[in-house]
Amino acid sequence: MNTFEPPIFELSGPGKCGVNLPTVDVPLAELPQELLRTDDLAGFPELSETEVTRHFTRISQRNFCIDTGMYPLGSCTMKYNPKVHEAAARLPGFAALHPLTDPAHAQGALWIMEQLQSMLAEISGFDAVSLQPAAGAQGEFTGILVFRAYHHAQGDPERVEVLCPDSAHGTNPATAAMVGMRVVEVKTDHNGNVDLDDLQSKLGPRTAGLMLTNPNTLGLFDEHVQQVAELVHGAGGLMYGDGANFNAILGIVRPGDVGFDFMHYNLHKTFTTPHGGGGPGCGAVGCKTFLEDYLPGPRVCHVIDSDKFELFTPPHSIGRLKAFHGNFGMIIRAWVYIRTLGAAGLREVSENAVLNANYLRVKLQDLYPVAYDRTCMHEVVLKGQLRDAPAAKTLDIAKRLIDYGFHPPTVYFPISVPEAIMIEPTETESKRNMDAFIVAMRQIVAEAVEDITILKQAPTTAPLRRLDEVGAARKPILKYDPVKFQELRRSHAAATSDEQPERPTY
Amino acid sequence: MAYTTPDNLLYARTHEWVTTDGEELTIGVSDYAQQALGDVVFVELPDVGQKLSKGQMFGVVESVKAASDVYAPVNGEVVAVNEALLDAPETLNSSMYEEGWLVKIRPSNFAEDRATLLDAAAYEKHVADEASKH
Predict the structure, then answer these.
(1) Mean pLDDT calculated for residue range A104-127
(2) Cα–Cα distance for residue pair A3/A78, rounded to 1 Å
(3) Of B36, B39, B66, the CB nearest to A470
(4) In CATH, what is the architecture of A84-342?
(5) Could you tell me whether strands A262-265 and A238-243 are parallel, antiparallel, or unpaired per DSSP bridges?
(6) How confident is the model at residue A1 (pLDDT cuts 50, 70, 90)?
């Protein structure tokens, strides 16, 4: 299974083809000359249907995905995506619905949207929701545009500073900069919370707001969130909640209740949708009543008199963020998830996500130092600094995990933690599977102490062993080149021909 | 982590080094910083002629792990940039104090600026203090 799969170009043979068209029995119509391609099509692969099917099936079987194994990628929330969601999203009434259909003929779809708006508002403690933004970063962009519009409407256009903690995900400062705001960094204290003194010194009449992820990117719940909100509000600023880690507090804390004015939800993470391959997401946003008129449209409302669902755009809307109605497929999946679990089930999701992360923390912290020694939320940040094997790096540990059959966790992020290993097991991982992960992580330490080359050469069971990431970044080959490709293959084969690596047993 | 800090240089808390005499000062990143970054794969440098104020971000050093901003340790004007780094960013790893320099600056107020910089011993203490926070 671990053999090398050549690119489809190398499987080509002249004259082979997948489909034989019947002989033409009508006069040929010439294509307009200006539409014909003039570039060289030589080298376009020619294959039979079987070969194409097998090539792509083999490649797909190399794919590591949440359906094949544990995928503890911290900050990404790679939880299991129930298959019933896929069935619901593919119902022809949804999947084949044209986005320009008259709302009168799409009442079922609008009903789903209106219900999801209300359910998200209820879960998070907000008054109004827009499902427009296509993903988390676009939700952030929406929020800061809304903050700006609000401050302008208040006659306060000089509020142009957005505060971001140094532990923030890069999209927070990037968002503020993109909206034309000035980013001001706020320090983290020794417990992983926002440093209140530093925050106070940076607030003022130019403060537009603070962007806070809570739990933060260190997997820690900010213990002073209410004080932070009071300070920011006291200075005339607004509180933006980055909902990337909302999956840790469902049914336990409502961001709208602890001082946030606006937040985005990553429906694809918290409320499940297959993601990670750059697939569609949904960064729906919620806010308090005083910001509602600025939300992007269209939103859906229920008109009581006619008992109909209608689309509307708020009066001072910042405009559209996305064509049509956002990523509608995500909306259906999130609706099914929330309806399947109910209020008690959602709370259990977060409790188990937090329990699982803490289980891993306690079982690994004697060998892998924790970044902050306190109870974590849905993810734990360890350091790949091994006491008895200082030569081992986080990268080596991550690569060796591949040989044990696990997707590596997030590494070298957050950047404020040296040699960071950020593990998010999610609530859908069983104890048996987490125990296997723990054994693998502990055995890797033993291997590192015994013979560091085991780690440095890992992964030995992947088709191309360890990839040259530095070479790929410094001297990228961005186009298929048969000669270069053959050279690379030969050098790879020469380097690995003498051994038959086996998967480690444990 | 073992790293070098030549005695003839001054250092900023943000891990840049700077030479101390002549009309033009050379600036780069410290051995400690390049080791923490790991293999450098991309360097972005300012334009010659750009005026920099102390603490201002003037470039980016990107490794396989992260992208980090570099900050001007002194006030002045950029008089040269190390264009060789654009094609061979790995030089920053192999020769951080010699061939891997980033920019040369004509300082405008070095007498005052130098008081805010650290000598090798103070910089090593600063690095140790930072490491103990984690």
Answers:
(1) 97
(2) 28
(3) B39
(4) 3-Layer(aba) Sandwich (3.40)
(5) parallel
(6) very low
Q: Which amino acid is at A91?
A: L
Domain assignments of chain A as residue spans, ordered by start? 8-28+38-62, 84-342, 351-496
At A308 the three-state DSSP class reads: strand
Which candidate from B39, B64, B66 shows the least CB-CB separation from A415? Answer: B66
B36 in A contact zone (CB under 8 Å): yes
Closest approach of B20 to chain A, Cα-based (Å): 30
* Mean pLDDT calculated for residue range A303-312: 96
Q: Residues of chain A with pLDDT > 90: what percent?
A: 76
- Its ipTM equals 0.73
Q: Residue A392 has what DSSP assignment? A: -
Query: How much is the pLDDT for A479?
Result: 83
Closest CA to B30 of B43, B42, B45, B12: B12
* B39 interface with A at CB cutoff 8 Å: yes
User: What would be the CATH architecture of the domain defined by A351-496?
Assistant: Alpha-Beta Complex (3.90)
Residue-wise pLDDT for B41-83, tens only, equals 999 999 999 999 999 999 999 998 888 899 999 999 999 999 9
Name the nearest CA neighbour of A470 among B69, B123, B47, B62: B62
State the Cα torsion A173-A175-A177-A183 to the nearest 10°: -30
Report the top-level CATH class of B10-129.
Answer: mainly beta
Closest CA to A128 of A141, A143, A140: A143
Instruction: Record the tokens describing residue B82, joined without a space.
Output: 């190390």
Closest Cα in chain A to B131: A418
Q: What is the pLDDT of residue A470?
A: 86
Nearest CA in chain A to B68: A415
Closest Cα of chain B to A25: distance in Å? 59
Looking at residues A75-98, what average pLDDT do you find? 94
Find, among A268, A240, A246, the residue nearest to A134 by Cα: A268
Q: Where are the domains of chain B?
A: 10-129
Sheet hosting strand A420-423, strand order edge to edge: A380-383, A420-423, A410-411
- The C-alpha atoms of residue A326 and residue A352 are separated, in whole angstroms, by 30
A–B CB contacts, 8 A cutoff, strictly below? 24
As to burial, measured by CB atoms within 10 angstroms (0-12 exposed, 13-18 middle, 19+ buried), residue A500 is exposed
